[in-house]
Amino acid sequence: MKFFIAIIGFILFSTVSHAQQLDWEAKEKRTIGGKWIMSNHFNEFVTDQHFTGKFRIIFFGYTFCPDVCPTSLSNISEAMDELEGMEEKFQPLFISVDPERDTTTVLREYVKNFHPSIIGLTGPAKLIKRTADLFKVKYSKVPGTNDKDEHYLIDHSAGVYFMSPTGQFIRKFAHGLSGKDMAKRIKEILDENR
Fold first, then answer.
1. Residue 122's beta-bridge partner residues?
2. Beta bridge partners of 156
3. CA–CA separation, 50 vs 84, rounded Å?
4. What is the DSSP letter of 32?
5. Binding site members
6. Which residue ranges make up the annotated binding site for Cu cation?
7. CA gyration radius, the chain
8. What is the pLDDT of residues 70-90, one digit of tens each?
9. Which pLDDT score is estimated for 10?
10. Selecting from 3.40.30.10, 3.40.50.1580, 3.30.420.40, 1.10.10.1400, what CATH number does the domain 35-192 have?
11. DSSP strand E in 48-184: where?
């Protein structure tokens, strides 16, 4: 009898736990993204509204990043190449989490290394933090980094956000997903929602 009660308890706990997970995922989907304002790499103020009508492919990182950011931006570039013929429907955005070093000039030179449609965004630390919070992006200087050392590293979330033409969250692609696979998934999403 105790064994039977234990099994029933486990099933109930698992069901409640799963329901809570689904509820959390639903809330998460509703709460990623929002209204923001930043400077683009041409030193012009832009908001999320400037990209209304285009699907947004958004990545948070920084130009001094040794590996994660160049890999992710290369994958986004490859995805844009794979979406040939549909490029005008998409706007890739690279949002810096390093306002101390990533000036608009630095960003302008950096994004030239990737797909020509990628726009770099930066701004004051408070605006970057607010925007990162909207996307639930975490970032911080690597512990032990000397504040006077200009070669510091930043730990940061590494997913790629896919947002609708109205700025609604659609999906987050994991770091390391190839550009071909990213484009394939994007096409599948578009086909499912026709």
1. 39
2. 139
3. 23
4. S
5. 65, 69, 156
6. 65, 69, 156
7. 20
8. 999 999 999 999 999 998 999
9. 38
10. 3.40.30.10
11. 55-61, 90-96, 119-122, 139-141, 154-156, 160-163, 169-173
Summary count for the chain: helices (H), strands (E): 5, 9
Q: Which residue has the tokens 């726009």?
A: 119
Spell out the residues 6+ positions from residue 86 whose beta carbon is closer than 8 angstroms to its own: none
Contact (CB, 8 A) for 57 and 76: yes
Nearest to 36 by CA among 167, 160, 163, 137: 167
What pLDDT, in 10s, does the model give residues 8-65? 343 334 434 444 444 444 444 558 999 999 999 999 999 999 999 999 999 999 999 9
Which residues have a Cβ under 8 Å from the Cβ of 130 and sit 6 or more positions away? 36
Single out the residue of 151, 149, 125 nearest to residue 139, CA to CA: 125
